[in-house]
Amino acid sequence: MTDALDTTRPISAPSAQPLAPRAAPPQLSVVVPMYNEEANLEPLVARLVPVLERCVDTFEVIFVDDGSSDATLAALRAVHRLDPRLRAVSFSRNFGKEIAIAAGLDHARGDAVVIMDADLQHPPEMIETFVERWREGYQNVYGQRVDRTADSALRRSLTLRFYHLFETFGETSLPPGAGDFRLLDRSAADALRAMGERARFSKGLYAWIGYRSLGVPFEVAERAHGQSKFSYRKLTRFALDGLMSFSTVPLKVWTYVGTVISIAALIMAVYFLLRTVTVGADVPGYASLIVSIMFFSGVQLMSLGILGEYVGRIFAEVKRRPLYLVSERVGVERDSSPLGRAAQDRTA
Ligand code: UDP
Ligand code: MG
């Protein structure tokens, strides 16, 4: 467990094992989450490396193989043999893009870290602009999609609705069109690493940390090879995670719903009382009885369900399981800083 987050240990305490001397950290690290992206690796490297060579002296690319079932890992090993600046961390199974990004940030050592997708939807040439803005002093430079035509109409409309909900109920405001494609200064990257949440809704976290932020508009390209790895089921899960980690409104709203229903019930009680006194009691009323019983049972089950969603998330957080498990490192040193969250792996 030497690698796991240990909050009781002061940051400056000497570590138990002497560290091997490390090479000087590069100026820029690029983190790329990869899930079955074998076909995209070569075209990505061919476009990315020249851009990086143009804008910085030293760089590293950390590919995070998120438990791919194709030959992504083999391709990454091959790429590292040709160019040792291209490195990789491979997970023991698929943990999801958000966690892959967290692992990339844990292993990146650059003064600034760029996060981008592997499928060339995020044009590598934009990194030059990101780096310029970073040199001007911005610490959180994000790409802002100007259009979403690369997504299906259904996904676009659901996305729009989600952002609307988030804007209304979320406790953090998200800049429009901002995603994972961004450059983070070391300070911002460390701030993200310090957040130990398991349910990671990065878009919310990027906005929550603040720092001098700037949006740079860009056009999302079509996916180069393969298909989107996000099914509607995955996206729904992601949206729920996002809303629930940044809002407690769904929990609190039941107080108001309950109050309104109770007041209505009181008014009805008074009405029926007066009616009984003046007109007399009438037996019929099964229909309204059944309807109201069903309605209120539904309301109760719904509020219980929402409580359950939060309790489930609390349960996942308190278990304090490692965020991810690494099965292989390619040219990357074990992350040994106190902030590291990966569980000790036996292979590397
Ligand atoms: N990805 C990942 N783990 C997953 C799903 C996706 O690392 O479980 C990576 C994927 O390889 C790609 C990036 O996340 O580099 C974005 O995925 P995708 O293009 O499928 O998403 P979309 O562009 O449709 O939002
Ligand atoms: Mg994509």
What does this structure look like?
The chain has 348 residues and is of the alpha/beta class. The protein is 46% helix and 14% strand. The protein has 10 helices and 8 strands. The chain has helices at residues 38-55, 72-82, 97-107, 126-135, 153-169, 186-193, 202-209, 232-246, 249-278, 286-318, and strands at 28-34, 59-65, 86-91, 112-115, 140-145, 178-185, 213-218, 326-330. It has an 8-stranded mixed sheet with strand order 7-5-6-4-1-2-3-8, sandwiched between helices. Helix 2 (72-82) links the parallel strand 2 (59-65) and strand 3. Helix 1 (38-55) runs parallel beside helix 2 (72-82) and helix 5 packs parallel to helix 8. It is elongated. Residues 1-20, 336-340 and 343-348 have low confidence and may be disordered. The structure holds uridine-5'-diphosphate (UDP) and magnesium ion. Uridine-5'-diphosphate (UDP) binds at residues 33-35, 37, 66, 94, 96-97, 100, 117-119, 121, 223, 228-230.
Topology (elements, then pairings):
Blueprint lengths: L27 E7 L3 H18 L3 E7 L6 H11 L3 E6 L5 H11 L4 E4 L10 H10 L4 E6 L7 H17 L8 E8 H8 L8 H8 L3 E6 L13 H15 L2 H30 L7 H33 L7 E5 L18
Parallel strand pairs: 1-2, 1-4, 2-3, 5-7
Antiparallel strand pairs: 3-8, 4-6, 5-6
Bound molecules: uridine-5'-diphosphate and magnesium ion.
